[in-house]
Amino acid sequence: MGRPPCCDIVGIKKGPWTHEEDLILTSYIKQHGSGNWRSVPTYTGLLRCSKSCRLRWTNYLRPEIKRGKFTEAEEKMIISLQSVLGNKWAAIASYLPQRTDNDIKNYWNTHLKKKLDMFHSVLHPPHHLGSSSSSSDSSTSFQFFKREHNHLIHDSSTLNKFISTVTSTPSSTTYAFSTENVSRLLKGWMKTSPDTLKLKTTQTKEKLLPDGNDNYNNNSGNNKLDDGKILAKKIKIEEICKGDDDRISKEAAAYNFESILTFENISSCWEKNSSLDSTTVHGSTSATLEESQTTTTTTTTTPINDKVDSISESGHQGLVEDDQNQPLFCLLEKWLLDHEATGQVLEEDHRQKSLQYFDQI
DNA sequence: AAAAGGATCAACCGCCACTAC
DNA sequence: AGTAGTGGCGGTTGATCCTTT
């Protein structure tokens, strides 16, 4: 026999919560704490199911929740974390304790996804320019982007920084995809202990890598999310990189290649995009931008080989010799290190491990 | 001023892993 | 060991608010 039913389905109330209901729930949680949600409707007399009570508390009533607009720093964090973790909103929310997974998910769907789409459309204009419909679309995209980021347009360094934020992460895999750092990254939101994770990681490697199959059976472990799949992908990429130094340098090339996304290039692209002149769009600058876009907007689901091949085919490997000598890690990684240093996210020993890891690279 | 369309976000739904029985 | 309820998650919906025409 299983547990008794949590609540009676008949007579359950749905829809928006009233102020009175909020007060009742809040006072109950303050007295008894949040935990046994099954008993909440019974003890409070609320005509809500336990699930609804839990959601209301975790997504709205919790005192530590920060409401209002997301800051630029939060925005960057979400973009970077999303590129590494995917749509694991709870995991992402664990790095933003004052925001709920629901808020982050909503913000992503309503703001950030749109911004990234706009970047993509601006940097990668359609080939069929000239028709009236495409002119309307690209113009709208441009206007939206211009309205949203007017401050960036007038500040090239900020623009470059922002572009680097939204475009660089997927290509910088070498550090973030290391087993140790992925497990470190996932620490705090996985129920699995580090030791278990380490063991699982080893097992995953053994299971996946010999035959190259990344269909890790998530059901075999106690990992609640798809962290097994995430790990599997990243471990596989890491192994590929380890086994082929040339690929690592090409990954580095992919990263450095993004530095060509200067303000002038973006402006030029916009102008050409809005002018709807198909001949100029296929000119050198736009062509370069398109090629760079091939490398920079590639998600983690795209095989590295494709990305690397696109770089080779573009014939821009000379850009690897970028004298800026940028480090081979992305914003997220920089952020992790920064925050480790201030103790905001990770412990000091983790920072030391990260630094040791960088030394090894 | 009003209608239409878009944006926002709280809340719901369905699924899954965990776990009490 | 098997069953079924619970908690938690990501995806989706729909009511409301805002902006544009």
TrEMBL record:
InterPro entries per record: Homeodomain-like_sf, Myb_dom, Myb_TF_plants, SANT/Myb
Domain spans labelled Myb-like: 13-61, 62-112
Gene Ontology molecular functions: DNA binding
Keywords from the named record: DNA-binding, Nucleus, Repeat
Highest taxon of the lineage: Eukaryota
GO biological process: response to auxin
Claim: Coiled coil is one of the keywords in the record: no
Biased composition range(s): Polar residues: 280-293
Family annotation (Pfam families): Myb_DNA-binding
CDD domains assigned: SANT
Residue runs in coiled coils: none
Localization, UniProt: Nucleus
Main localization, broad class: nucleus
The name this protein goes by in its record: Uncharacterized protein
Originating species: Papaver atlanticum
